[in-house]
Amino acid sequence: DGGITQSPKYLFRKEGQNVTLSCEQNLNHDAMYWYRQDPGQGLRLIYYSQIVNDFQKGDIAEGYSVSREKKESFPLTVTSAQKNPTAFYLCASSTHLGSYEQYFGPGTRLTVT
Amino acid sequence: EDQVTQSPEALRLQEGESSSLNCSYTVSGLRGLFWYRQDPGKGPEFLFTLYSAGEEKEKERLKATLTKKESFLHITAPKPEDSATYLCAVQVNYGGSQGNLIFGKGTKLSVKP
């Protein structure tokens, strides 16, 4: 089955620690995205990538970093500089940047205490 | 500023009671409008894409329509399994972030048997 996988589903970290969230897709999509979802707010774009070894900041990139070494993978690192990291993180992909539909993974819920 | 507003925030229906969800948007140039369904703790599931005013799309009990300022998601004779949060997003046709989606905060639909 083609799709997007995110792991783990739940993640717990202590404040001050960096943590990396995994996102893998086997849809052969060029573009990938990371969003953050908080209660009562719309999804907000953190980073996006249209091709391997290239990525751009979204609306709320501060305190996050990404890499795109493989077409299939787009991991997100939540650094200790992110002031409010507890949230639901969603990865998405589309055939290319600017294509219409984005398809989402199941999400990772990160709790930092 | 580009903006997407969904109303109501929450909607409770009895099974079989038809209703509509609203998504109003203010953007300078619309490339596409998207509806997603999101179940608790899961990633959004793509439902529809609408491209131009007057367009309509249907899927089972759902029908999406688009005007120049808003979109409606009509739910006919809903069932309890239609309970979810419905997200609206727009894609603009200008600027350096073409292809990126601007999300509303969603409408949480509850359908009681």
Task: Characterise the protein shown here.
The complex is a heterodimer of chains A (about 110) and B (about 110). With about 110 residues, chain A is mainly beta. Chain A is built from no helices and 11 strands. In chain A, strands 2, 4, 5, 6, 9, 10 and 11 form a 7-stranded mixed β-sheet that branches. Chain A has a 4-stranded antiparallel β-sheet with strand order 1-3-8-7, with no helix packed on it. The mean pLDDT of chain A is about 95. Chain B is an all-beta fold. Chain B has strands spanning about 5, 10-15, 20-25, 30-40, 45-50, 55-60, 60-65, 70-75, 85-90, 100-105, 105-110. In chain B, a hairpin with an 8-residue loop joins strand 9 and strand 10 (about 100-105). The termini of chain B are far apart. The relative contact order of chain B is 0.33. The model of chain B has no long low-confidence stretch (mean pLDDT about 95). Classes of the chains: A mainly beta (about 110), B mainly beta (about 110). Chains A and B meet through strand 5, strand 9 and strand 10 of A and strand 4, strand 5, strand 9 and strand 10 of B.
